[in-house]
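Quick one, T. Sequence first:
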Amino acid sequence: DDFKRKEAWVEVTGDVDTGITEIQNVGATELKALPAGSLYPDWARSSFTSIAKGLGSGAHGIVDYEGQERVIETDEDAAGDLVFTPVVQETAETGSGNDVLRFFRGADVGDWLHKLFEARFNAKSEEEIDDVVNGIPGRLKRALFMQGKTEEEFVAVEELVANMLDSVVNSDVLPATDDFSAFQFNALASESRTNEMPFLLSVKNRRLTTPVLLETLKKVGLELEGDAVTRLTGYLTGAIDMVMFAQGKYWVVDWKSNFIGDGTAQSYSQEEMEKEIDRKHYRLQYVIYLLALKRHLISVAGVPKEEVWDHIAGAMYVFLRGVDADQTINENGKRNGIFIDCPREAVDALDKLLEGN
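Structure tokens:
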């Protein structure tokens, strides 16, 4: 399709060689339905999304997108969910430009932005990058959420998306250090990143339930609340937006399209992003993602277990609406729109818990 995804249906016409040369007539066969429920009730597949749905109102609007054995979580409050989201009131200060921000939001918009950034970072050459940027108008025209919009609204959204992509790609997101210059995504070589990295973590702990998970994480400072009792056995699965190698270490990167405050970059301070992360339980998400990265480096890259944290920088959550090219990294090494955390103790605790310890 437009985003070069492979999970498209293909219609086969004409004669097809099935490899079957003869069908034996074995007579009548009696068919009976299997008992209701799973054949393997203790062996299922869970994800951050399925766990978060049982953790209270903050998880509303998280939607599963299944395909090619992967799960992608959208970030926006889905239409119909009973979640309060502030609406910008037009004033002399805000101006009519914020009309665009009022309708350019929601689960469909969040999924569309995710796929746009996936396409941008799947591009390996300058020509492919130009194709993604120049293709924004065409992708918008085909988007369901843009149907019925005026020409003025279309142009405003096109400009908003182009500026968003340019700001995220060409702004400093990591400060300079003694060993490295400030990092921008435009400097990230294709061989230093993996997009939509799927993972499948084995859950050997047959007694693991959501209350046990929450209690364990609470002991290491990760406070989550929920009253759902769900068994978490079998596999824990998902897909990381991007894993990158920058400034000498590995990072988990996640694109977030959440609408905070009035939707402008000023609303995406460290404090406000942290509130949104707590509301949507994203700390649990990046603990799971960092565990997947940790196990991958140990089992695939051959990094010794006792040295693995020397190679992991942490999780970087990029709130796309909050990165403004006109803003810079402050004296504390932080900037609006970029949230970074690395809760090693929580990741290690989850690792042991999945193993049954």
